Each structure stands twice: as C-alpha cells, then as structure tokens.
Amino acid sequence: MKSTLVVGVDGSAESRAAADWAAREAVRRDMHVHVVHAWLWQPLAVPVVQDRGTEARRAREILEETEAQLTRRHPRLSLSAEVVPDVPVPALLRAAKEAEMLVLGTRGHGALAGFLLGSCGQQLIASAECPVVSVRARDGEPVYGGAEGPVVVGQQGGVEESAEVLRFAFEAAAARKVPLRVVRAWSLPPVYGYSPGSMWIAEQFAGLEPFEEAALDQALEPWRPRFPEVEVVAHVERGSAGHVLLSEASDARLVVVGRRVRESAVGTRIGSVAHAVLHHAACPVAVVPHH
C-alpha cells in the first residue's frame, strides 16, 4: 500500500500550486495524493444572500477542477479527493493523521509579512503530527527555488533530537538526486559575555566551532550509510539559526526545518527558526515535528 500525501485546496491559485507540487512529489516518491477541500454550510447572521446548493456545487467544482489539472499534468498519479464537511484546520488535521506529509499553499510576500501563512496555515503547521510543506505560488505555479539546487536542512541539538528532521531531508534529497546541505548554527553561551577569561581559554583550544562540527558529524553518522547516494555538505557557522539557514538556502529546492512538539501556555507554536524560514525562503519549506 502506497504512503499518502494530503493536500488542502480551496480554489485559490496558491492551493492549486500546492496541489501541483504535491503531485510532482508523489510521482517522484511513488506515493498516493489525497486532495481535501473543507466546506461547511454556515448560515450568516447578516442580511447576505446565501444558497446552500450553490455553495455545495462550488465545493465539488473545486475538487473536480483540481483533479482534472493533476490528472492532465501527471497521468501516472495515484489520486483521490473528497469534500470534508468541516472547517479547514480540524478537517485537514484529521485527514493528515496517518499521512506521510501535508501540503499547503501560502501567499507570496506582501506588506504584512507576519501574516504570510494565514492563520489556518500557522495552526496546521503548529499542530500537525506529520511534516507540513508550505508551497508559495507565483502566477498560479509553485515557486520551486533553485532549479538544480540542493535540499537544505537545519540541524539542531543532538542525534535523537534531529533524527526525524534529517530522515525527511535525506529522503527528499535522495528522491531528487541532489546534494543535501546540512546547516548547524551556533552562538556563544551567555557565560562568555560575563567571563572574557572563559573565552580566552576556549580560543586556546581552537575555539568552540570544532565542538559544533563534531556534534553535526555525530548527528549525521546514522544517516550517511543509509543514503550512500546522497552527497552531504556540512556547514557550521556562528550566528542566528534563522539567518544562517536562510543564507545557505538561497539556491535551495527545498528547505527542511524542525519544530519541537511541546505545549506552551498559549498553545502550540511553530518556533522562531521555522517561522523565519517560512516567511523568507524562496522555495517550498518542510516543517518536521520532533520531540
């Protein structure tokens, strides 16, 4: 049985672009695409003319148009589609519960950069149990980034913490037959700001960067033998994780970042690094949940 890739559509150019990206990825990985359109009849308590039958037909037309587009462009695609009677966030979270990944469309850069994803997109990325790929559109087509560029992944923490993120990134690079650029950013611990002597000692041992390079090599060690065909380029740099990752992803075809699964006082969060990359990367971005 094929793994499933779920894509949410709403009739917009962005969601059509996301559906096309999802179809290409499914053909590349021999996966099944399940297209979901969430529609729930919600009469408004204002004097606006509404027709349930008309809205229901439009919901079905959105699916039919998407199916026709994908079938025409990708004849070998394994495809299914459904209208889910619910609002978008819970509908897509349920649909993607057993999926390999969830794909969403997002708006291009605008004046309100903080609202690039839209509230539904942010909720889905923060709550989904599977990786979520955000696809930007230009002229109704997916923005793919560098045509021959690598997959770029941000690595943080130790071996176990980054395992799921690296697995996804290696699989993506292997499927595309492109190199994988693994980026680890680091910054000085606060103690060095208060203790110049500690910094002097660290510099006598060639600084702290060798420790970061060793941590990255250790995180990559389980994955290199599993994907011998993937060329790995490891990059360690001092600086803000978001800035370093974006600078290394200028030619990327896909950027992969992690999202720690944890509850906060205000609910689930995307995380600052993922948030920065989602808003500024010039290619699709995959956010992979991990513990």
Automatic annotation (TrEMBL):
Outline the extent of the UspA domain.
4-136, 158-289
Q: Give the coiled coil ranges.
A: none
Q: Which domain of life is it from?
A: Bacteria
| A Pfam family annotated for this UniProt entry | Usp
Family designation: Belongs to the universal stress protein A family.
> What is the official name of this protein in its record?
Universal stress protein
